Amino acid sequence: MTIFIGADHRGFELKNQIIEYLQEKNIRVEDMGALQLDPLDDNPDYAKKVAEAVLQNPSEFLGIVICATGIGVNIMANRFRGIRSGVAYSIQQVKAAKEDDNINVLALAADYTDLESAKPMIDVFMSAKLKSDEKYQRRISKLDGAI
After folding, report:
1. Nearest to 100 by CA among 142, 132, 56
2. From 3.30.390.50, 3.10.20.70, 3.40.1400.10, 3.40.50.261, which CATH number describes the 2-145 domain?
3. Given CB 3.0 to 4.6 Å as the disulfide criterion, which of 11, 69, 75, 77 pairs with 110?
């Protein structure tokens, strides 16, 4: 498994903390930027890089995108066919999003999420599996076929 992660200036600090956390767990992580703190950068640029990277091998790659609210990066990531991004608010919600909707990108709100609350959400995001019921498979097919 490889995790691609990207954040703008508002998520820069949380991104760097998450990278360290994932590396401590021996998870392969690729930093898609921002590589330096730039208060004038734009969150869609990093969400785009993460989405494109995940799409190179969607069965093996996951993404994490971060901005102030998580909304901007989530919107951008979901512009790409095959990306199913969800904003994280709780462990239970992330688990349901992964099991029911098979999200492959997790959007975090840096202004409302600290590292300690992000850790268990990230762990569930990496470990939960799509339910095997036909209805979930059918729904994912519809999501991936949407324009």
Report:
1. 132
2. 3.40.1400.10
3. 11
